[in-house]
Write a structure and sequence with these properties.
The protein is an alpha/beta fold. 63% of the residues lie in helices and 11% in strands. It has 26 helices and 12 strands. The chain has helices spanning 2-13, 26-40, 44-60, 64-80, 84-97, 105-120, 124-140, 147-160, 164-175, 184-200, 204-221, 224-240, 244-296, 300-386, 391-421, 434-444, 446-451, 472-488, 539-545, 551-561, 602-605, 617-628, 640-647, 666-674, 694-698, 712-720, and strands at residues 430-433, 455-460, 467-470, 494-505, 508-517, 567-571, 575-586, 609-613, 633-637, 654-658, 682-686, 704-707. Strands 1, 2, 3, 4, 5, 6 and 7 form a 7-stranded mixed β-sheet that branches. It has a 5-stranded parallel β-sheet with strand order 9-8-10-11-12, sandwiched between helices. The protein is flat and about 125 Å long.
Length: 724
């Protein structure tokens, strides 16, 4: 059994079965040597002619076993050139040659390659017949474990023909086999090929599972070359998914493995060179000694001196060579140790990145899940306030509304930080009027300044270009947060916002921003920590002034995202100064006038019919009540499947679609509705999470997005703009 297993493995390791002939058949051996040389130099036509001569010799001399070997060899040459019809003729002839003699490895391979050639031509039923014949012959010879090697080659043939379902099915049969030493290497290769196919089919999660399995099994065999291939495939996977840090990490590990393999080969070559050197030295010594014996007849003393010097020289060279060889071994061992340490550091870095990702996803999930009950709290509060509450109840409801809005702001800020940390935030580059933006911010915060009896001053450098190109949304968020902080921590004082042109060159402008207040100030030992999440300087400040402690964290991260750096100077009791610089491109073209949208009118909403698809009973009740308060007819379904069927037979003026539904989700339901209804407005209702965004939802056919918890004015105005 071991003999046949070894024979089959050798056959598969060699790209061509060059010869199974007997050494005493000189003519076959001669043709094989010539054919092999032609194959090595890729002269395939010459190799075919020489192999045909060998076949003619076998037929003339009636040598069936050699005839089977040589026809198989010719078939393999045609197979590798993708001349499948010629290949099949020779494979059939090879298999038939063994009918009159005891079958060998070659017949098994001939049957298997008949299956592979038929697979390449798309004749799968015929291919299966010959695959089964090859398997049956393996069992008859008692080589059961080696069948997995044939199955692997069969799967590779399916893969080469891009028949991925059959390839996947065949590879999966191999990996389900019990682990043993005879199939472990085949299982590793199968996991690796499954990962490549899943990557090709863009099933990324499955691909990574198979690659991880391949790596785990590879630890048992320590096959560095195979491991290098797997690591490279993982690197490409992460690159396709734009996770460049992990892609680089695995690519670096791949290069380290390749370098280590190369070093091992070089070390072996160095040792062989050393042995060759010693043999050459010995040969030279023999020649010298013969020469010295002839010279000894004339000058014995001179000959003796030369011999001593030669021996001394040889000894010194030998010692130096040995020392160099030992130093080389020590250096290789040290390099290997350094690589192992480097690998440990890379693994530690990967674990840290995974932990950070898990934290971010956890916070995002918690923030997302809190929005649904918070929508109920805010919605019911809004409905109760609109229902003419008693004066005694009004105070409690206003407090409940304030608490709900505070918690909504807190959750939004957590989600904002997670988006920035997870590189989910994209920087816009659009034209905007900086001066107009700052005046609008000042107007929106006048009430807060008046409440704390503060003088709010705005200074804008006239030299700043009117129209800049940048991200006005994030700039507004930065300045609003800083001014809000300044106004909150300042009473009976002054808050100043200063914008100056710092530099202007080649259509680029650098603007310097400064936000100064005369508030409570920040202790020197807290100047660095105020930019950390949930940090407000002290517990007393938090209790007195409130807030989440996330505003400055968001400001710092957004400024860094825009390419700037925030600086802080502060003194307790005298106030604080925040400064930063940002670069913008200059737009010399005037901005198009933007007409403000009119607020909604209740008449736009009256007597409209809306279908609400929402699975949460409380949200159903709140949304229905908010719609009925505007004289809107509302019908409710709690799943996407029923909604799709109802809309095929009944029309509504609008559809409110919850994104997360049991069964098919809201996006899938929207896609199905759009197949037969292109016009009815569909608005997404969602607690937008880390992996969701407005553009992604609109891409499924939705017309707009309303986020939970609902802000009533935004809710009504979003609906109203579709009813002219």
């Amino acid at each position: 059994m071991k003999y046949y297993y070894l024979l089959i493995v050798v056959c598969f390791l060699n790209p061509f079965l060059y010869s199974q002939t007997k050494q005493n058949t000189d003519s076959i051996s001669y043709y094989n040597k010539l054919a092999n040389k032609k194959l090595n130099s890729k002269e395939y036509n010459e190799a075919v002619l020489l192999t045909k001569k060998s076949i003619d010799f076998c037929e003339t001399n009636h040598i069936p076993e050699d005839l089977g070997n040589q026809t198989f060899k010719l078939g393999k040459i045609y197979y590798n050139q993708r001349k499948y019809d010629e290949a099949l003729k020779n494979f059939h002839k090879s298999a038939a040659s063994f009918d009159s003699i005891k079958p060998t490895c070659t017949k098994i391979l001939a049957l298997h390659y008949i299956g592979a050639a038929n697979t390449a031509q798309g004749n799968y039923k015929t291919a299966d017949i010959y695959y089964l014949k090859a398997q049956k012959l393996l069992k008859e010879l008692g080589v059961v474990d080696s069948s997995e090697i044939l199955n692997f080659q069969k799967a590779m043939a399916f893969k080469a023909n891009k028949n991925y379902p059959l390839a996947l099915k065949t590879f999966q049969k191999i990996i389900k086999k019990p682990d043993n030493s005879s199939v472990i290497k085949t299982k590793i290769k199968s996991y690796y090929q499954l990962g490549l196919i899943e990557t090709q089919l863009k099933r990324n999660d499955s691909a990574m599972i198979y690659f991880d399995k391949a790596l785990n099994y590879n630890e048992k065999t320590n096959d560095l070359a195979q491991k290098s291939k797997i690591v490279l495939a993982i690197s490409r996977y992460y690159k396709q998914n734009k996770n460049y840090d992990l892609a680089y990490s695995y690519l670096d590990e791949h290069y380290q493995l390749e370098n280590y393999i190369l070093k091992l080969k070089n070390a072996k070559i160095d040792f062989n060179e050393f042995e060759k050197f010693k043999k050459n030295q010995t040969l030279n010594n023999t020649i010298k000694r013969e020469s010295e014996e002839k010279i000894q007849l004339k000058t014995y003393r001179y000959s003796k001196l030369v011999s001593i010097l030669a021996i001394a020289l040889i000894s010194i060279l030998s010692l130096l060579s040995l020392a160099l060889y030992k130093n080389n071994i020590i250096r290789n061992q040290n390099n290997l140790l350094l690589r192992e340490k480097n690998k440990e550091l890379i693994l530690a870095k990967n674990k840290a990145e995974k932990a950070s990702k898990a934290r971010s996803e956890f916070l995002s999930t918690v923030s997302h899940e809190l929005r649904t009950p918070l929508n109920a709290i805010n919605g019911i509060t809004h409905l109760l306030l609109e229902d003419n509450p008693k004066k005694a109840q009004l105070k409690y409801l206003e407090s409940l509304k304030f608490s709900g809005n505070y918690l909504t702001t807190f959750i939004n800020e957590i989600l904002e930080i997670n988006k920035i940390d997870s590189t989910k935030v994209e920087v816009e580059n659009i034209s905007f009027n900086l001066k107009e933006l700052l005046f609008n911010i000042q107007s929106s915060l006048k009430e807060l300044a008046t409440a704390n009896k503060n003088y709010f001053n705005l200074e804008i450098d006239k030299a700043i270009p009117d129209i800049l190109i940048g991200d006005p949304t994030k700039l507004s968020q930065i300045i609003l947060n800083l001014i809000n902080n300044a106004l909150k921590f300042t009473q009976n004082g002054q808050v100043s916002v200063i914008a100056k042109l710092f530099a202007e060159e080649d259509e680029n402008a650098t603007v310097y921003f400064e936000i100064v207040d005369t508030g409570i100030g920040i202790p020197e030992d807290k100047l660095q920590t105020v930019f950390e999440s949930f940090s407000q300087g002290s517990i007393e400040v938090n209790r007195k002034y409130g807030g989440t402690g996330l505003g400055l964290t968001i400001v710092k991260k957004l400024i860094e995202l825009l390419g700037g750096e925030i600086k802080l100077k502060s003194e307790v009791g005298k106030g604080s100064t925040f400064t930063f610089k940002l670069n913008f491109k200059i737009n010399n073209e005037p901005l198009e006038a933007v007409t403000e949208e009119k607020p909604y009118n209740d008449k736009q909403l009256k007597h409209k019919s809306i279908l609400l698809i929402e699975d949460n009973k409380i949200n159903q009740m709140i949304t229905r009540k908010m719609l009925e308060n505007k004289a809107i007819t509302c019908e409710i379904l709690d799943n996407g499947e029923e909604a799709v069927e109802l809309l095929k037979v009944k029309r509504f003026d609008m559809i409110l679609m919850d994104v997360h539904l049991p069964g098919i989700n809201g996006t899938t339901a929207t896609q199905q509705i759009r197949e037969f209804d292109k016009t009815t407005p569909i608005i997404a209702l969602t607690a937008i999470s880390l992996d969701e965004n407005r553009d992604m939802l609109l891409s499924f056919g939705m017309n707009d997005v309303i986020t939970k918890p609902f802000v009533p004015d935004v809710f009504y105005s979003t609906i109203a703009k579709f009813f002219d």
